[in-house]
Amino acid sequence: MTNASFLTPRVTKDAFPAAPPHETAHDLTGEVVDLERALEMYQELDDQTNQAMVHRNIGIVLEHQGRLDEVLRHARLALDRYRAAGTGIGRRTSSPASGTPTPPPAMPAWHAGSGTRR
C-alpha cells in the first residue's frame, strides 16, 4: 500500500480567519428602529396581528445580529400577540393529555365558498 496522504489537502482554521462581525452581519440598526416605529403605530391602533408580525421581523433582524436573547423575547411577544388576535397561530394542534387533534378554527362566513368561479 502506498501512502496517499499527500493527496489530501491540509486545511487549518488559520487558513480561514474569522471575519469581523461587521462583515458577516449587516448593521441593521436602522431597520430595527423602523420596525419599532411601526410597532408603536400598531400598538396605538391595538392591531394585535400586525404587532405580532413586527415582533417576528424584529426577531429576524436581531438573529442576524447574533442577539439571541432578544430574539427569544420578541418571538414570545409575537406568539402572545398572535394568540390575543385569535388568529389560530400558536394554538395546540392536539390535546396534550389525549393526543386528539384539536379542530382548526371555523372559517369566517365570507370566506366559505361565497364566490363565483370564472
Label this structure with key terms.
118 residues; mainly alpha; 4 helices
Describe the structure.
The chain is mainly alpha-helical and 118 residues long. The protein has a domain at 25-85. The protein contains four helices and no strands. Helix 2 packs antiparallel against helix 3 (48-64). The longest helix has 18 residues, at 68-85. The radius of gyration is 24 Å and the shape is flat. The mean pLDDT is 75.
Provide a brief overview of the structure.
Helices cover 47% and strands 0% of the residues. With 118 residues, the protein is an all-alpha fold.
Strand-helix topology:
Layout: H1 21-24, H2 29-44, H3 48-64, H4 68-85
Helix pairs in contact: 2-3, 3-4
Helix percent reads 40-55%
Which stretches of 5+ consecutive residues score pLDDT under 50? none
Give the helix/strand class: mainly alpha
Number of strands: 0
Overall 3D shape? flat
Distance between the termini: 74 Å
